[in-house]
Design brief:
With about 100 residues, the protein is α+β, with helices and mostly antiparallel strands. Helix content is about 55%, strand content about 20%. The protein has 5 helices and 3 strands. The protein has a 3-stranded antiparallel β-sheet with strand order 1-3-2. A hairpin with a 2-residue loop joins β2 and β3. The longest helix has 17 residues. The relative contact order is 0.22.
Amino acid sequence: MADLDPVIHAQARLRICAALATLGSAEAITFPRLQQILEMTAGNLSTHLRKLEDAEYVSVDKTIEGRSPVTYIALTTLGRRRFEDYTESLRGLLGGTP
């Protein structure tokens, strides 16, 4: 049986990674937009992003635009690779292509 990455396997973190994987490798999304897409509270999203950031699966970049703070979230190269490995393992478990 293939091992599923425990960092990604939690439902909320899986949803975050799946959403970020739809972006190009050089793209990022703002925190409020990701929160809106996933319909998560700010606190819940922050908690799960911290876990993904600690594993170096996502990057969280805080900047100032005009006079307002903006936080950008992106999947790192490692995070993208781990998400692809995760989905491949899941397909294998479900009887698809290993």
